[in-house]
Amino acid sequence: MTNLICQRILLKLSGEALMSDAGGSIDADIVKRLACEIKDLSDAGIEVGLVIGGGNILRGAEKASEGLDRVTSDQMGMLATVINALAMQDALENLGQQVRVMSALKINQVCEDYIRRRAVRHLEKGRVVIFAAGTGNPFFTTDSAASLRAIEINAGLMIKATKVKGVYSADPEKVKDAKFYSRLTYDEALDQRLNVMDATALVLCRDNNVPVRVMNIFEKGAVMELMMGGEIGSLIQRGTDNG
């Protein structure tokens, strides 16, 4: 497909995106719907790398605050992301999409080890690559893992998928007159503490000039519209004024 804004993207989904309002860690219907969106991107010739958080199953930082060792709790969180990655892999394969899960932790019986060159080769062959287990290290979020993988695979854009339109000055569900930002710089997001993603993730994108688009993943077809040049969500990049 022509007129795409870039050929390769890194899509970051939160673990909570896989949950239904009724509760439960993974909603099969939601996973299938998200898989359909991802397959549409791949069918359009877009190379898709995917990072899914594990917060629907376990948050390492929360368990650490309850008294569990932080390194152990973060490792548990990494394993939660592997569970989500396998669920998405199954949904994509059921749609006929070739996909590979690559883990930063060695779990050879269920997925491949993450090797950068192999990941890039998978992408070049039209396979969706799901990067699991974060960075493989404690104290780093899956947002940071997404930024790191986006840089490593030379993604033209990192998409941070949320449940709201984009970046606001405050939580729009709590603050009625929260200001929406259609465009802003990395430093503006950092200085104003807009909670787009953790500071490490934003700094990685800033220092390696990877633009970040924050958008609502639950608007059907929105990602494809974005890839065709639509102004969807909020764009974070160098040298723009907020608006």
Automatic annotation (TrEMBL):
Reactions catalysed, as given in the entry: UMP + ATP = UDP + ADP
Q: Name one GO cellular component term.
A: cytosol
Tell me the residue numbers annotated for binding ATP. Answer: 12-15, 55, 59, 162, 168, 171
Alphabetically sorted, this entry's keywords are:
ATP-binding, Cytoplasm, Kinase, Nucleotide-binding, Pyrimidine biosynthesis, Transferase
Residues bound to UMP:
54, 74, 135-142
Annotated GO biological processes are: 'de novo' CTP biosynthetic process; UDP biosynthetic process
A Pfam family per the record: AA_kinase
What family does the Swiss-Prot or TrEMBL record give for this protein? Belongs to the UMP kinase family.
Coiled-coil regions, chain positions: none
Primary location recorded for the protein, binned into one broad class: cytoplasm
Record localization? Cytoplasm
Notes on how activity is controlled: Inhibited by UTP.
Fill in the subunit field for this protein: Homohexamer.
Q: What is the name attached to this protein's record? A: Uridylate kinase
Task: State its Enzyme Commission number(s).
Answer: 2.7.4.22
All residue ranges annotated as the Aspartate/glutamate/uridylate kinase domain in the record: 8-216
Purpose: Catalyzes the reversible phosphorylation of UMP to UDP.
A single Gene Ontology molecular function, please? UMP kinase activity
Spell out the NCBIfam families in the cross-references: pyrH_bact (TIGR02075)
